[in-house]
Amino acid sequence: MSRTGLLLAPLVAGLLAASVASAQTPAPQTPAPPTPAPQTPAPQTPAAQPPSAKAPAASGAKTTTARGKSAKPPSRYRPDRFAGRAGSYYRLVWGVDSLGVKWAESGEVLRFTYRVLDPNKAKALNDKKNEPVLIDPQAGVKLVVPSMENVGQLRQSAPPEGGKSYWMVFSNKGRLVKRGDHVNVVIGAFHADGLVVD
154 and 104 in contact (C-beta within 8 Å)? Predict the structure, then answer.
């Protein structure tokens, strides 16, 4: 019995040492995951927020500039299309201003209007000998002034008077010329290029 006890003693001691070693290994594993690890992300997240706050501010600035760009052309430049060199050209050479082309009768006709400033210079626009033509380069069409049996051409051909507005109508069958198209009106030597159809 004593021999077996002596033989078992080293085995028991080995088992105890293994159990102690196994008991010691988890002890270092539990402190191994540091508690400061969750603490370090917490301060990092607020630090990461200010740059993201700056990004929306920059994007907001872009939208304001984009709004500014989109707001300027329609509101400020449409009413006075010929306020610059073109406007002075038509006033000085042809004695007219306030040129415009509008859709009428649901787009079946286009109405070209102008105001006479100098009747002598504007005679060519009301001269019956000059056949008016409206050209749309985008649609590839030329429109003419229609003629009615009892009325004649749908245009004003009386001698122009200063301060009065005059008009002529172009047939737009099939509505080939659309709103927003840039068209040219030619009446003899008179050329009005780049008029926008309203």
Answer: no
146 burial type by CB count under 10 A (0-12 exposed, 13-18 middle, 19+ buried): middle
- Looking at the structure, tell me whether residues 49 and 26 fall in a common domain: no
* Per-residue pLDDT tens over the stretch 53-101: 444 444 444 444 444 544 444 434 444 455 567 789 999 999 999 999 9
Buried b (16+ CB within 10 A) or exposed e, 36-67: eeeeeeeeeeeeeeeeeeeeeeeeeeeeeeee
Look up the domain containing 162 and give its range.
85-196
- Of all residues in the chain, what percent are helix, strand and coil, respectively (each to 5)? 45, 25, 30
H/E segment holding residue 169: strand 165-171
Q: Considering the entire predicted model, what is its pTM?
A: 0.59
Q: Which helix (H) or strand (E) holds 126?
A: helix 123-126
